[in-house]
Amino acid sequence: MTNKNLKKILVLDELCPPYDQIKVLESGILLVKEPGVLEVDQLISRVKQDPLIKGIICSLTQKINEKVFQELPQIEVISNIAVGLNNIDLEAAKKYGVRIAHTPKVLSDATADLAWALLLGGSRRLAEGDRLARSGEWKGWAVNQLLGPSLGFTENIDQNLGQKRLGIIGLGQIGQAIARRAQGFNLDVCYYNRTRYVELEQSYSWGFMDLDELLMQSDYIILAVALAPETYHLLNRTRLNLMKPNAYLVNVGRGPLLDEEALIDCLESGHLSGAALDVYEYEPNIPERLRALSQVTLSPHLGSATFETRQAMSRLVIESAESIIQGKEPCGYFAI
Ligand code: NAP
């Protein structure tokens, strides 16, 4: 390949093995690996230095605003190692004709698994138990030690106890995978979503509720909706206060879906029994008040963090960027 035809993709994040080893793609396109999040102006000046850079692979922490598209007409594609695209100005991408790829579906199972790990581990106080077991202070089994709620009951242990309800906010790929996993727990599953999926409701016996009703009637709530201007602070103070006393909240969507300060108030007051969070409003900063709450389980944005999933995500972001630079039509991994 002559130098004139040489093209490059700037990779601003670590890729998962074996994709971390690839420097030249079969098409001859070079991967220029400089992992690290850049300020928008730094990104623009870096790319401008090298007119052969035609694509960017980045993670969800890399901000891509209109200025990037305006100043860098050489860029044909941006490939995001994530499914949420809230870090990218999609309207501006459309305006400037830049293709945007992401990694939907391949991470749905891993993220749904983590949602359940948080729900089970959090509500059953596993992190607190781990801290106690390690502390050297544990005195042995005790009837009232670290009790949490029962999820569901296959045997009628008390006639007064009804079936518990799991409310899922956002029935996209991840929300559906979470809901399917609920079957083994004998929970009543309901959901709130912008779009109603009647066929899924019928196939799986999932109930649709409007958001306020779902908040008032669910024992467990999992947030799995995309972050968009319409869903920013979807769970604001008023809505958090609608939740059942002692309800348990899990967030695997994005931090700004809920008003973090209002959530802390609800937890400190005892209105909610606890919460398990994988994402935060001002990531990676987690407020001291939140970190101080023992009934909260905190996970550092691990939703898609399995070997197989991160490998698939790494493969997809490369393939998507490469295909556009080669002049191919965008496939199902493109949002634009
Ligand atoms: P998806 O299949 O595209 O589903 C997106 C969900 O968000 C759907 O319920 C969709 O509703 C809803 N939605 C999108 N835009 C909306 C808007 N403007 N207003 C109201 N609802 C809107 O995506 P997914 O794979 O399920 O992922 C969902 C989110 O999970 C991602 O966007 C990402 O932020 C987050 N996530 C987190 C992790 C993690 O590590 N914790 C990993 C992966 C993803 P419709 O059905 O009506 O379109």
Structure description:
The two termini are 30 Å apart. By secondary structure, this protein is α/β, with parallel strands linked by helices. Helices cover 32% and strands 14% of the residues. α4 packs across α6. The strands form 2 sheets. It has a 7-stranded parallel sheet, sandwiched between helices. α3 links the parallel β4 and β5. The longest helix is centred in the last third of the chain and has 19 residues. The site of NADP nicotinamide-adenine-dinucleotide phosphate has 30 residues, from α4 and α6.
Offer a few descriptive terms.
Rossmann fold, five-stranded parallel β-sheet, seven-stranded parallel β-sheet, binds NADP nicotinamide-adenine-dinucleotide phosphate, 12 helices, 336 residues, 32% helix, alpha/beta
Concise structural overview:
This protein is α/β, with parallel strands linked by helices. The chain has helices spanning 40-48, 66-71, 90-96, 108-123, 126-135, 173-181, 198-204, 211-217, 237-242, 260-268, 288-291, 307-325; strands spanning 8-11, 30-33, 53-58, 77-80, 99-101, 165-169, 188-192, 207-208, 220-223, 248-251, 274-277, 296-298.
